[in-house]
Write a structure and sequence with these properties.
single chain; alpha+beta; Beta-Lactamase; Arc Repressor Mutant, subunit A; 2 domains; five-stranded antiparallel β-sheet; 5 strands; about 50% helix
């Protein structure tokens, strides 16, 4: 136990020593500029952008980082997306929650939807006070079809895509893939970078967003996408897209004209 404490103390001391010698604490900005599939940002205690990478600039339809610095998401993104992101930031800045691999559907400047996983963590000073936040939003990668377990897991994925309107239980998906529950969760993450539950949500929200272009009611769409409870569907859809189903439907005409 004493050895573990000693190693931990040494690690903290090394980090503090190096941190004190680094002239620019935001040295990672240039590294994240080289990642076209990752959005990176640092915000101050008011939720205003302090550091952004070039990918975020492009996703916002801008050319220069100066167009974002000093502004909040509500001032950068179209309504109501910006307000949703800002509310999320304020929760993190208040110490209420940190975001860990939140599955989100974003709209890019050309109005095409894209799936990503978002993380947001509070930044604290030496006294433990929150002084800002940092985060990344990573585009979902293509499936690793070279993984030896891909075919077995793909059988479960096929069921999700074909039967998303039905109750889908993890033990049944594991049985279809001829795996244990622990194995299928592990291989889903390795191959698709998603948990089985996240893929079910992604598939259902994708289907719902397409149905919202038609005449079906929100209640009918909720039922068709596997949500017996209309309010549960609305909560999940908003948590994933930042919009209620009704707001998404109202936004659609402007997307088609973009």
């Amino acid at each position: 136990m004493n050895r573990m404490h000693t190693e931990s103390d040494n690690n903290h001391a090394a980090r503090r020593g190096m941190g004190a010698n680094i002239a620019d604490p935001f040295f990672a900005e240039g590294l994240f500029d080289a990642l076209p599939d990752v959005v990176f940002f640092v915000k101050d205690v008011e939720g205003r952008y302090v550091v952004v990478n070039q990918t975020l600039v492009q996703r916002c339809g801008q050319r220069h980082k100066s167009a974002l610095i000093g502004r909040t998401p509500a001032e950068v993104f179209a309504h109501p997306f910006g307000q949703t992101y800002q509310a999320q930031d304020l929760q993190v800045l208040a110490g209420e929650a940190e975001i860990e691999d939140q599955l989100e559907l974003h709209l890019y400047p050309n109005r095409d939807p894209g799936w990503c996983l978002t993380r947001k963590h509070a930044l604290r000073d030496a006294q433990g006070r929150i002084v800002g936040l940092t985060g990344i939003s990573r585009d979902l990668a293509m499936a690793d079809k070279k993984n030896p377990a891909y075919r077995k897991v793909a059988a479960a994925v096929h069921v999700i895509h074909e039967q998303y309107g039905q109750p889908l239980q993890l033990p049944e998906l594991a049985r279809i893939a001829n795996m244990s529950v622990a194995q299928i969760e592990r291989y889903f993450l390795r191959i698709f970078h998603l948990t089985p539950r996240q893929m079910i949500i992604q598939t259902r929200v994708d289907a719902a967003s397409r149905m919202l272009n038609g005449a079906a009611s929100v209640a009918e769409i909720a039922q068709a996408c596997g949500y017996g409870d209309h309010s549960a569907f609305t909560r999940q859809f908003k948590a994933t897209t930042g919009l209620t189903p009704t707001q998404y439907r109202q936004l659609r005409p402007s997307r088609d004209c973009a």
